[in-house]
Write a structure and sequence with these properties.
mainly alpha; 74 residues; extended; 65% helix
Length: 74
């Protein structure tokens, strides 16, 4: 039996990371209707962890994200 899979290939402009990443996320969301909120929530958690990791200088915005992520995990 044939196995059918989705394969996405992206050519992105690395000089414009935010809009390009946004477009990639939107493409994935279109492949998973009904799971958009779950996917975005999980991405939010991972982005929060990355912000804490990369911005250890005590930025108040990062502290708020760290606090929010901890509450979401509870």
């Amino acid at each position: 039996m044939a196995k059918v899979t989705h394969k996405l290939e992206f050519l992105v402009n690395a000089a414009e990371p935010v809009p390009e990443i946004n477009n990639v996320i939107l493409a994935f969301l279109q492949l998973h209707p009904g799971k958009e909120s779950q996917i975005l929530a999980e991405l939010q958690t991972e982005i929060g962890k990355a912000l804490v990791h990369y911005n250890a200088d005590g930025d108040p915005a990062v502290t708020a994200i760290k606090h929010y992520s901890t509450e979401a995990d509870a």
